[in-house]
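Dear support,

We are seeing what looks like truncated structure output for some complexes. This example has two components. We would appreciate it if you could run it in full and send us the complete token output so we can diff it against ours.
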Amino acid sequence: MSDGVRSWLLPGLPLVFLVLLFGYPVAEFLSVAFTDPAGPFAPFLHLVSESVYRIVLGRTITNALFVVVVVVLLAFPLALTIAHGPRVVSRTLLFVVAVSFWTSFVVKSYTWIIVLGNRGPIVELANLLGLDSPRILFTSLAAVIGMAHILVPFAVLVLVPSLLRIDRRLLLAAHGLGASRLQIFRTVILPLSAPGLSAAALLSFVLSIGYYITPALLGTPREMMIAQLIVQQIEELLEWRLAAALSLVLLTVTVVLSTLYRKASAKAGGEA
Amino acid sequence: MLNIRALRADQGVVYVNSWGGSWTDAERKAIFDPFTEATGIEVVPVTPVSIAKLRAQVQMNDYEWDVSNMNPIEVYQAELEDLVEPLDFDIIDRDKLASNAVVGNSLEMLTIATALVYRTDKFPNGGPQSWADFWDVERFPGPRGLYNRAFTNVAIALLADGVAPEDLYPLDLDRAFNKLDEIKDHVTVWWSQGGQSEQIIRDGEIVMGSMWNARAQSVIDGGAPVEIVWNQAEHLSTNRFVAKGTPRTKEAMQFMEFAVQPKPLAEFCDALTYGPLNPKSLDYLSPERVEVMPTRPEYVKIGFHHDPSWLAPKLTELTERYNSWLAS
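Here is the complete output from our reference environment:
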């Protein structure tokens, strides 16, 4: 076997695998969107003319952005401690994050039903304090909490390697030159973490925009996300053209937003 | 594992679409195992029940299951799409079926009631007795739950507005959605999973709601203070049918006949308290058990039915309108 062939074989096999088993079926499914007898774009015109699809798409993006903010705010301090904290603390935290990462997201979603539910600790605490029972379960807030909980370990695992690359000597130098802890954080740690943070944010956004089971279990159909609508079109109504059109819209929105975001963060990184 | 076992069986195999969980457990004990014993044909359950999968199977001519069970509206949808194999009366013995059993190309198996249920501890002076009472938030205050299914909610809204069960069809959608507007903000949970409906009534997330009768029964049997209102309950049957074009049609038809026989059907309903649609099944059930089943004659009289031939072709339009009503 020549070296040329061999060097292609390693990346080539997984590539063939991806194209055949992922790319082809996805393309095949999406192409269903253009098979309406009333015209290839009829399903898309329908999506535009019925306001419910716009509402649900808008809500899906808003919810996903909320999730990103929560995930980044929770994951960043966690990842920072794992990367630069004392060894024992860092190991323990990493273990906890890994266990959470391995736990099924269905199990996690059901756990939130217990925690946020009428017999859960939050409602009991409120009752103890003489407050009205807060209604969190079966609202969008519950869906956002559930999704963020699932995505935090993903974000931490993306962040940690990038934070580990920060040269500790820079922190020591800043400290030696008289910078306060806040100054060190603002002027050294934060700019150097930017690539990792933007990668984590992008990953959380892309994952949460297509979430199905968690919003279905914890949220409310009054504020449903787009994946729930797609599943309903496929499973209940057999409207596969509409489902494919919706999926294509979701895919396009995701790709466009991700590209814009990448460009924006690359620009910000360049100026920093 | 199961597939390997099935391949080894001499007498063939039939793949049966099933809901999983307690449903499949009950089916295995009451229907699958006795069928295998009687015929030598192995039964392999495949979950979950999915009309989308049925269409994909027929289109691809590649069958993961041969027999399914769905409600008559879904069966009608499937018939419209030509996904149902005609019943083969050379294999199925008509004389062994109840007179009402054959519906189109499907066999009626049982009735699931989606009934109003309420927490008796929240209403010590008597709870709601009708959908009109469900709508009466002054006399019966508290958060409510509804099964998030468009045609069910549209129908109960019309009943709450005073439409008689026999006059439901054709559905007056404008009237129904106007009525639904009144209750919308009092419904805190729009449930979609059976387990979820059990949790919300058991934990008191809601004081009343719509619920499948066997799910409600399981909550009651678990000791929760819950009562089923049989008045104006939705009666929706579950029918068995064979996937169009499956290579195991013969075994599938044999299974169909067996599954609606009085004894196996009675044993299944004994486990899950849905109502057997073979009247002879009642001979195998205790009177106390029949009392919590929707096919008890007294309950049939006060329940309501849908018209699948009207509903199935309009399902997409109705669901879209319902979604946008719900989302706005």
